[in-house]
Amino acid sequence: MKQWYYAINGQQSGPFQKSHVAELYRKGELADRDLVWEEGTPKWIAAGKVFGSLTVTPPPAAKNAVPVTGSGAFKVFACLQRGWDLVWKHPAHLIGGFFLAGVIAFVISASMNLSPLLTNANLAEKLHYQLTPPMRVLGLQLHFGGMILNLFVSPPLYAGMFWMLLETLRGKAPDLGNLLFAFKDFKLALKVIVANLLVGLVITVSAFITGIFSGVLAAVLATLIGAGSGVGGVLISLVIFIILIPVIYFGVAYLFTGIALVDRRLGIWEAMEFSRKIVTRRWWSMFGLMLLNLLVMLLGLLACGVGLIVSAPVAAAGLMYAYHSLAAEWEQEHRP
Residue 316: left (phi > 0), alpha (psi -120 to 50), or beta? Predict the structure, then answer.
């Protein structure tokens, strides 16, 4: 499927699917005089000539928007600072929204965490209670039910959390309904779920391949130099390090796959590639931002876990500023 781009006041955005550009025009976010371009066509065309038959619905006025700069704006500490500013401009919606999403995620995980109490005989013996067949059945139901809920609910929910932040930083009024945005479109929710599985599969397969390679390498080195206790420990560390390389690389590179699906209405592989392209050019900076976010989350945990109520939305908002800035840089460098 050919991709579309649009340009407002000389600022190009894309790639998108045609339906997404049409929706922007229908909402009034894309004016008649703004330009659109389809891959493979010779020139840009006024949006009104392509989508003029659509009914335009004016967008609501933005209030209290946090300023966002475009190209060249990506800086690790600046993203986190802007995330902090954004969250404290709209604490009720953003902190409250993340708290609500956290409760949903906790309920899903709790069902799986409770299942060992109802199925593990050794645990029952240590805690001095008797397992019965109905308890085991209930434990299995909780475990597999939680797995299914986690598979089908968590990815669209997290995508909705990021979408709420992205729309807010772009100047729109914060809307808790955006938490469930992906669930309102079955095809979109399914795309987010499949993309999450595909990213996990890519990471797992790459780790498996590098694991085999590093294992063979370690065996050869052990044969050549002898496998003493000290050498064995070094070789095991080498194997673990090599396995972690693709896990960390792809984990960072495909970080924005879900939000790219929601924001740009791309195909699954197209969204994965878009994320990889905008991140790879600044991969080390993004890795640094992830480490900084991890530190922020740990500080939230140290505050008896209560700090996570604030640190989680701040870290996520920082990631959305990074996505916004990296996407803007990529778009300006790849103008057709």
Answer: alpha
Contact between 166 and 263 under an 8 Å Cβ cutoff? The reply is yes
- 122 token code pair: 């050794």
145 conformational bin, left if phi > 0, alpha if psi -120 to 50, beta if neither: alpha
CA dist 331 and 86 (Å) reads 24
Percent of the chain with pLDDT over 70: 88
Contact (Cβ atoms closer than 8 angstroms) between residue 92 and residue 173: no
Q: Can you give the residue ranges of every domain in the chain? A: 4-51, 92-178, 187-333
- Phi and psi at residue 266, in whole multiples of 5°? -85, 170
Q: List, in sequence order, the alpha helices (H) in the chain.
A: 18-26, 47-51, 76-89, 91-119, 121-126, 133-169, 186-225, 229-253, 257-264, 268-280, 283-302, 308-333
Which value, in Å, is the radius of gyration of the alpha carbons in the chain? 24
Contact 334, 273 (CB under 8 A): no
Q: Which residue has the tokens 């996520």?
A: 316
Tokens 């729109």 found at: 172
Q: Amino acid identity of 328? A: A
Per residue in 283-310, pLDDT tens?
A: 999 999 999 999 998 888 887 667 888 8
From residue 47, alpha-carbon distances to 3, 44, 265, 301, 315 in Å are 15, 9, 18, 49, 37
